[in-house]
Amino acid sequence: MITVAVANQKGGVGKTTTAINIATALAATGWKSLLIDLDPQGNCSTGIGISSGERERSSYDLLIDQASVADCLMPTRIPGLDIVPATVDLSGAEVELVSVEDRTHRLRKVLTADTGHDICLIDCPPSLGLLTLNALTAADSILVPLQCEFFALEGLSQLLQTVERVQERFNPDLGILGIVLTMYDRRNRLTDQVADDVRSCLRDLVFESVIPRNVRLSEAPSHGLPALIYDHACPGSQAYMKLARELIGRLPERRIAA
Ligand SMILES: Nc1ncnc2c1ncn2[C@@H]1O[C@H](COP(=O)(O)OP(=O)(O)OP(=O)(O)O)[C@@H](O)[C@H]1O
Ligand SMILES: [Mg+2]
Question: pTM value?
């Protein structure tokens, strides 16, 4: 199984939207896909149509009790796509893990078991705390959604430093799958400027596919559906399909340039 952490410590940049729609696109192309909701907000679980009342086992159980993925996953309405949901107790997990010796490797340990999935996408919370560190330690690569706005590059350099630290200390095999520009608005000149800056700094780490700002993408979660199912023809869904194709072409992931 290929494991991809969808991460950016900045909030509201499109991590969850990207995780849900890429997982859906991959499931639609026949990849047995697994989502792990590692954010106490549980947006990924809700957005895929799993209400909080339905969640029995969760990512909290993976991390704290080292429960098996097979015991914690639930099927979704999308054929070929399973999810390990998040529950509110995950917000306490970070504190509970602090005193645990293998605190950064908890997720990695449970993900070694074969569950029959081809790919696992981990939806990370907006922080660089122990939850995200567990995801980066468990992952083969990181996928970074980046919103085209003024402080984007500053936050990105902090994130890339964290990736390097994880490579040095916990997971030498962690690669960068790529950076995807999200909520792109071509009528906004600042958006264009930021996109150019990011591309000139990070070159081919940045995916060619760009996700436009599209209201259908933001409506879909309230229906408990990926945008790809809610309205597969909308520009946002089309962009995610294109990104999924590009992403498949990059697997196995490229390494961070030395
Ligand atoms: N391309 C887009 N166009 C319009 N709205 C979008 C787009 N991508 C995401 N959104 C909306 O923006 C909000 C933030 O997106 P999302 O939840 O995916 O970000 P996130 O990085 O996971 O946030 P958090 O850091 O809180 O977990 C959501 O309401 C989502 O529906
Ligand atoms: Mg999110």
Answer: 0.96
